[in-house]
Amino acid sequence: MQCPFETKPRWERRKDARPQELLAAALELFVERGFAATRLEDVARRAGVSKGTLYLYFTNKEELFKAVVRENIVPALGEAEGIISSFEGHSADMLRCIILGWWERIGATQASGIVKLVMAEAGNFPELASFYHEEVITRSSDMMSAMFRRGVERGEFRPVNVDVMTQVLIAPMLMLITWKHSVGPCNQGNLQPMAFIESFLDMALHGLLPTDANQGAA
After folding, report:
1. Gyration radius of the chain's alpha carbons
2. pLDDT band at residue 218, thresholds of 50, 70 and 90?
3. Pairwise CA distance, residues 19 & 57, whole Å
4. What is the pLDDT of residues 184-217, one digit of tens each?
5. N or C: the chain end with fewer CB closer than 10 Å?
6. Architecture of the structural domain at 91-217
């Protein structure tokens, strides 16, 4: 079954409105400098507007950050949730679709820097950490759990502790994001994200599939 993720993020097709220009500039600066070091005047300057214009749309830096998350990450979660609720194929194909779609829509884009930013600065900005947990982490975990639960109920995955397996399979993807935005550019080994994801999926699916299915896939 063809994975129904859109091939191009929706936010890349909405560049006519000024708020989107501000959000694009904010995303770049948050990823480049982190939350604490990003100043609203710098966001306005990069977007080519005055600081006063920025305040017409966003009351402070915290609200601007929340808007960046809702513009660049939350829509992909909604799309993935829709795919999971209507997917008719094997649960292994669905898991592959969602993981690859997540990388295409988030991991391979500048938005992935927000994931690393939250991990690095959550302790200093608990309100933003709480916001991100509610709008992104909880939904992502629930989405992954739903896939595993579906696979187990249909006999396509072996019985597993769904809550634990969710965290086990999320962790490598977070590591890949962290690597990309930290030591990755300096790593002479040049870890290839798609090769990593394919190996990760191979390991995960052969661990999740029932014994008879594993024998058939070998």
Report:
1. 19
2. very low
3. 7
4. 666 655 778 899 999 999 999 999 988 766 655 5
5. C
6. Orthogonal Bundle (1.10)
| Residue from 165, 166, 205, 197 nearest 180 by CA | 197
What DSSP line would sit under 108-156, residue for residue? TSTTHHHHHHHHHHTTT-HHHHHHHIIIIIHHHHHHHHHHHHHHHHTTS
CA atoms within 13 A on the CB side of 94: 24
Q: What is the DSSP string of 139-202?
A: HHHHHHHHHHHHHHHTTSS----HHHHHHHHHHHHHHHHHHHTTTGGG-TT---HHHHHHHHHH
| Token pair belonging to 3 | 């994975």
- Domains of the chain: which residue ranges? 91-217
How far is the C-alpha of 170 from the C-alpha of 178, rounded, in Å? 13
